[in-house]
Amino acid sequence: MSNKLILASKSKVRKDLLDSHNILNEVEASNIDEDIIKKSLLKEGASPKVISKNLAELKANKISTKNPNKLVLGADSVIDLDGELISKPTNREEALKILEKMNGRAHFLFSSVCLSNNGSMIWNYTDKAKLTMKKMSNHELILYLSKIADETLFAYNVYQIEGEGRNLFSKIEGDKNTIMGLPIKKIQEYLNNHK
């Protein structure tokens, strides 16, 4: 097995996290239709945490099948607002509705990672962070959104914790890397123990 892993995601933040922790990687996006899978799992009564884990595994296994004897990392993050799955917005109106829904409330963010080899999961991990959003006026929410570029807004569940999104929260409990989409310490631990 090669010591370079394949990241089954086109997330620049995840790629940057791997690079900054000296984990050799190349990118091959899985391009799975997340919405169809989420809808199907929700119909079966799956929790946001289970959905996150399943999506990470599907992404890793899909790319792993195409790349024999290579380690593939799949990742997924979801927001759980009192049991309701909050998905990435597809437009600015949706983004505002999501922020209004989360306004003044706490939510959980689950980040799951999965390592696959030869089309099968060999390791997975899910971490959780709790974020409490400040109570903000509608004007403040609109002002926040006006500062966020489209590619950031539609890629990161309406907030990017390493940027402007930090200002939305009164309290953040959990690992910053988990909130950014990759519990990197656990990945490093696994890789170090399985050289």
Q: Notable features of this structure?
A:
195 residues; alpha/beta; Maf protein; 8 helices; 7 strands; 39% helix; globular
Describe the structure.
By secondary structure, the protein is an alpha/beta fold. It has a single domain (5-193), classed as Maf protein, CATH 3.90.950. It is 39% helix and 26% strand. The protein is built from eight helices and seven strands; from the N terminus they run βαβααββαββααβαα. It has helices spanning 12-20, 34-43, 48-66, 92-102, 138-146, 150-153, 176-179, 184-193, and strands at 5-7, 25-27, 72-81, 84-86, 106-117, 120-133, 169-173. Strands 1, 2, 3, 4, 5, 6 and 7 form a seven-stranded mixed beta sheet that branches. A hairpin with a 2-residue loop joins β3 (72-81) and β4. The longest helix has 19 residues, at 48-66. The protein is globular, with a radius of gyration of 17 Å.
